[in-house]
Amino acid sequence: MVSFTKNSKMAEIILKNYQLLPIISRFGIKLGFGNKTVEEVCANKNVNAAFFLEILNSYHNSNYFPDNHLGDFNVDVMVDYLTNTHTYYLKSKVPHIELFIDKMEREAQEENSRNINLLKHFFSEYKFDIENHFKEEEKHIFPYVIDLEKALSSNNCTKELIEKIKHEPIEVYERNHDSLEIKLADLKNLIIRFLPPLNCEDDCEHLLTELFQLEYDIEEHTRMEEKVLIPKVKMLEQKVLEYYGV
Amino acid sequence: MEFEERKLHTVIASEQYLVRLGVKTLLNVIGIESELHEVDTFDELEYFMQNDENMDYLILSEDILQKQRKIDCLEYVKNSFGLSSTILIGKQQFPTCVCDHFISYSCSRKEVVDKLQQFFYAPKANEQQEEDSLTLSDRERDVLKAVALGFSNKEIADQLFISINTVITHRKNITSKLGIKTISGLTVYALMHHIIKAEEAM
């Protein structure tokens, strides 16, 4: 598959793969590109084009592996993007899904409304899980990552940071990074295989579409964290230790 | 049907003489050659299940189940005999009823005959299961129930008198049959299918 480059036309990218729409909005890029290229659009919006392209390409093609370009951007742009993605899930995707479940619950017949209530409960548990997962990352992981980069650029490194690199490196987080897609897959299975047929097929179809999209998006998000963020942080940890001669 | 050396044993359980007589007559009509045993109280049925291992089929009329405790009685029958070889006769199939076979009091003669025929001549559920990849075996249901109730593999192994490895194998099979991986997903499945009750899931 051909990758997009900084000279690709922004409009053509979206025409080719509409699923990239939510990605561009996470960067604050709006429609109405005219004939502008990726580079031009990014320059207008003050977006790091190299990083933007990495995200577009890996989202567009799951075999794309951004290994050559790890050094081309700072982690702060990446942390920004990941934080925006969290917000997008919680503020846009999750409420959508809840809306459809609620609608289905209202329209279903008695016996089935009990089943849908179970699914609703299941999803609210899931919401709680991802909220915690994101909070943990935003509170502990992302600031750590930023601190690492600062330590290198500012020539100033606290003792605590060195301690943290030694005792609680990113590897610990990597090992405990649990998957957020499994429960979503279960929810889809419960609906597709086991929920007795509904009379509100439209809502059910919307709900499933949302679930498939969210699952795909979260998979991609996890892939970014595991294949791009973590390797990059490991590299930074190493550099900081070397730089300060520990 | 294949020739079998041992004669089949069928228990007809009902309080009412007329029901038992009616069932016997119809069995005769469809040509079931089976040793017939009649019981008219639940205690007697319980006794029979505990002491006679030769029981092959159970025709169970709802009236014999103790009032208020119908579900528990059925649960008991299920655990000691299994429901794949049980047919229930009653007013209506209760929502939590796990019987595969059911005859309603309001069925016509033809419907009753058809259902009895299906019951005796259809392959038994446990023989069928190898093929039917979506149905859980009785044992898998037990394991699923315990998982949904929040027990650990070790606890489940102790409860069911099986090894932890067997529990793990059952869990793998359950997941591959249902396509559900997480404990909370399995709990939802168990609730949807009345394998556990909502109060228990707390």
Automatic annotation (TrEMBL), chain A:
<dbReference type="Pfam" id="PF01814">
    <property type="entry name" value="Hemerythrin"/>
</dbReference>
<dbReference type="GO" id="GO:0046872">
    <property type="term" value="F:metal ion binding"/>
</dbReference>
<keyword id="KW-0963">Cytoplasm</keyword>
<feature type="domain" description="Hemerythrin-like">
    <location>
        <begin position="103"/>
        <end position="233"/>
    </location>
</feature>
<dbReference type="InterPro" id="IPR012312">
    <property type="entry name" value="Hemerythrin-like"/>
</dbReference>
<protein>
    <recommendedName>
        <fullName>Hemerythrin-like domain-containing protein</fullName>
    </recommendedName>
</protein>
<keyword id="KW-0408">Iron</keyword>
<dbReference type="InterPro" id="IPR019903">
    <property type="entry name" value="RIC_family"/>
</dbReference>
<keyword id="KW-0479">Metal-binding</keyword>
<dbReference type="GO" id="GO:0005737">
    <property type="term" value="C:cytoplasm"/>
</dbReference>
From TrEMBL, chain B:
<protein>
    <recommendedName>
        <fullName>HTH luxR-type domain-containing protein</fullName>
    </recommendedName>
</protein>
<dbReference type="GO" id="GO:0003677">
    <property type="term" value="F:DNA binding"/>
</dbReference>
<dbReference type="Pfam" id="PF00196">
    <property type="entry name" value="GerE"/>
</dbReference>
<keyword id="KW-0238">DNA-binding</keyword>
<feature type="domain" description="HTH luxR-type">
    <location>
        <begin position="129"/>
        <end position="194"/>
    </location>
</feature>
<dbReference type="GO" id="GO:0006355">
    <property type="term" value="P:regulation of DNA-templated transcription"/>
</dbReference>
<dbReference type="InterPro" id="IPR016032">
    <property type="entry name" value="Sig_transdc_resp-reg_C-effctor"/>
</dbReference>
<keyword id="KW-0804">Transcription</keyword>
<keyword id="KW-0805">Transcription regulation</keyword>
<dbReference type="InterPro" id="IPR000792">
    <property type="entry name" value="Tscrpt_reg_LuxR_C"/>
</dbReference>
<dbReference type="InterPro" id="IPR036388">
    <property type="entry name" value="WH-like_DNA-bd_sf"/>
</dbReference>
